[in-house]
Write a sequence for this structure.
């Protein structure tokens, strides 16, 4: 298949909420080709009228790398179609086998158009918030290689952002947890995210600039989960609590 055909294959799987075979089982692709496919699949969404709202980092913590058996940082693109309002009730039928993970979100205050250093990150961000990411691999059994998951836009499918707060200069020792039906199912520290979630912004600035993309003012950046992800089931309430930044919640019908 050409990269455009693979992009269509994965985009259709996402639209129809139907799992497909890993690309790896069909043909071998390298990482650069995987990102080309990812960007072509996003272009299909843009052609349908979606707009890019930001970026996400993945596998920024050992907990996530171990859970998925993949050991390299990845990045993907978020669109407005993936945004879920806090308190919304969502039907599971829109997804294949969704999982939720607790995350930290940043809002970009100044356009990032090249690599930036850790000490400069706070100049480019204006707010941060507790967030939930919903991931839904388009591959059967949620199994993939690094190239597979990158081509599949890093399993991106949904994100929920809580109240925006002013940044704190030191955010690497915050507690973060995921609660399902008011019970803590995952608990971690933000230090698990590349030692410091601001480092996710440094990595994104480098990767986006290598790809010729700009992280624009107003965009959201999801720093990557500090803990493993948890499968969603009907009739659940799903909540991230980020230390004294508070909580964000949504529910499954
Ligand atoms: C890939 C997405 C990883 C994270 O926060 O580490 C990710 C996956 O696990 O399917 O979003
Ligand atoms: Mg994530």
């Amino acid at each position: 298949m050409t990269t455009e055909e693979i992009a269509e294959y994965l985009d259709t799987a996402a639209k129809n909420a139907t799992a497909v075979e890993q690309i790896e089982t069909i043909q071998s692709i390298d990482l650069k080709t995987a990102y080309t496919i990812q960007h072509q699949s996003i272009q299909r969404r843009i052609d349908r009228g979606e707009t890019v709202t930001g970026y996400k980092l993945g596998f920024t913590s050992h907990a996530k790398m171990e859970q998925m058996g993949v050991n390299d940082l990845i990045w993907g693109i978020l669109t407005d179609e993936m945004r879920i309002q806090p308190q919304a009730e969502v039907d599971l039928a829109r997804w294949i086998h969704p999982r939720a993970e607790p995350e930290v979100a940043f809002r970009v205050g100044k356009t990032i158009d090249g690599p930036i250093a850790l000490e400069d990150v706070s100049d480019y961000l204006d707010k941060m918030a507790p967030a939930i990411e919903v991931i839904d691999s388009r591959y059967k059994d949620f199994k993939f290689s690094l190239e597979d998951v990158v081509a599949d836009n890093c399993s991106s499918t949904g994100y929920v952002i809580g109240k925006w707060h002013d940044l704190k200069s030191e955010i690497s020792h915050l507690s973060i947890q995921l609660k399902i039906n008011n019970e803590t199912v995952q608990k971690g520290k933000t230090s698990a995210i590349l030692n410091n979630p601001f480092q996710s912004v440094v990595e994104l600035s480098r990767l986006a600039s290598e790809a010729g993309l700009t992280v624009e003012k107003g965009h959201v950046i999801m720093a990557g989960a500090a803990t493993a992800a948890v499968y969603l089931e009907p009739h659940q309430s799903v909540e991230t609590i980020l230390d004294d930044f508070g909580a964000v919640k949504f529910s499954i019908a």
Notes: The mean pLDDT is 97. The first helix runs from residue 3 to 16. The longest strand covers residues 125-135. The pocket of 2-oxoadipic acid (ligand 1) is lined by residues 56, 58-59, 64, 68, 101, 133, 135, 137, 149, 154-155, 224-225 (CB under 6 Å).
